[in-house]
Amino acid sequence: MEALEAILTRRSIRKFKKTPISRDMLEKLLRAAMAAPSADNAQPWHFIIVDAEELLKKVPKLNPYAAMSPEAPLNILVCANLHKVKNSNFWVQDISAAIQNLLLAAHAIGLGAVWTGIYPVPERVDGFKKLFKLPDYVVPVALIPIGYPDEYKEPEDRFDINNVHYNTWDEGY
């Protein structure tokens, strides 16, 4: 799948088959995530691979939007290591770019995934920190349930010319 096709056809998948994800596929996802740009090349991302049922059953209580996580054969908790951050205002962008790369890579290799947000909701951050035993300097940003899709969603064209401006806000595209 070419990059533009992956971008335009990727959808959030919340239903998964129980088929396990190979170590090779997991490594492809992580390599794609770590290829993301980052401010000052800080690369503050860390990834916790989660497939332990006892942990995943607790996730929906911490984040109701991640209710599907116990059904996915694999989840990736994407975190920021604040000790690696050089410009404190940019680490969220760094982690977000890594997550988007991961989502696109999953789609490109035939997997489905969904971005379930943790940061900046304090209760979610605290709950995930405790559940996954994260040190104080690590911030959980998102949990990504991943698996072979057990649903299909048509691509959506979300282009809206009204959201495009030329040179200044006052001038449309």
UniProtKB/TrEMBL annotation:
Keyword set includes Oxidoreductase: yes
CDD domains named among the record's database cross-references: nitroreductase
InterPro entries: Nitroreductase (IPR029479), Nitroreductase-like (IPR000415), Nitroreductase/BluB (IPR050627)
Keywords recorded for this protein, A-Z: Flavoprotein, FMN, Oxidoreductase
GO MF, any single term: oxidoreductase activity
Location of the Nitroreductase domain: 7-68, 85-148
PANTHER family per UniProt: IODOTYROSINE DEIODINASE 1, NADPH NITROREDUCTASE
Protein name: Nitroreductase
Organism in which the protein naturally occurs: Desulfonauticus submarinus
